[in-house]
Amino acid sequence: MASMNSLVQIKGVRDGLLAAFDDAPWEEQRSALLSQIDERPAFFQGARLAVDVGSQALKVNELVALRDNLSERNVALWAVLSESPLTEQTAQLLGLATRLSKPQPEEQKRGDAAAEDTALFITKTLRSGKRIEYPGNVVVLGDVNAGAEIVAGGHVVVWGRVRGMIHAGANGDSSAVICALDLSATQLRIADKVSAMLKPQKHPKPEVASINGEGFLQSELWHPGELYLQDMS
Predict the structure, then answer these.
(1) Alpha-carbon dihedral of residues 7, 12, 15, 17, nearest 10 degrees?
(2) How far apart, in whole angstroms, are the C-alpha atoms of residue 68 and residue 71?
């Protein structure tokens, strides 16, 4: 039998998050989804979730139970995608969407940026021991001190100094970037790439870090410099 985590894959979409399931009985799929949310409650806090249940024929009580389970975890069920006419009709009766909205042409030019539509704004310095998890972008108007952590599904922008750990594109989005006025982090991660500790700079300048080819490109706004990474095990 497949492990709980392998039964459900969660990725970002234009309107929030999408959970897609491998073949299994519905109760196993539902338990796998709730287990993932319970493992990272802060990350899913306030998220809008769509589920793709494939050919599962779900009745009203089953979708209502799922919606209630998610609501108890502060996750909003907003769409149910299904190949089953019964499930689609049930979702519509409950006021749930049964299709995902398509990006406009100008949005398609920017690529499939899962988290570009949502952002968490933090207007204070993150001190040691503070951990922020969010499924979209994170913007910090302040510093990220050593010992503080940010885990974001999208981009991370810090209008200040970074000394802590930042993980952008945490759901596997390799197009995510990390920007800061002073990027001297303990560690940077984007998707499945991870950097070594960065040394504080005597004369810091605004920088942007992004994945480029086999590694991780850390560049000043006008003098790029390469920072090699290893894959996260």
Answers:
(1) 30
(2) 5
State how far the Cα of 113 lies from the Cα of 78, in Å rounded to an integer: 19
| Mean pLDDT across 10-16 | 77
Choice between 116 and 121, residue whose per-residue pLDDT is larger: 121
Instruction: For residue 69, give its domain range.
Output: 5-93
Tokens 């491998």 sit on residue: 22
User: What is the token pair recorded at 230?
Assistant: 């290893």
pTM surpassing 0.90? no
pLDDT in tens, 203-218: 778 888 888 766 655 5
The domain boundary, picked from 58, 93, 128, lies at 93
Total count of domains within the chain: 2
DSSP letter string, 108-127: HHT---TTTT-EEEE-SPBP
The amino acid present at 70, given as its one-letter code, is: L
CB-based contacts of 20, cutoff 8 Å, min separation 6: 8, 9, 10, 11, 51, 52, 54
127 with 211, same domain: the answer is yes
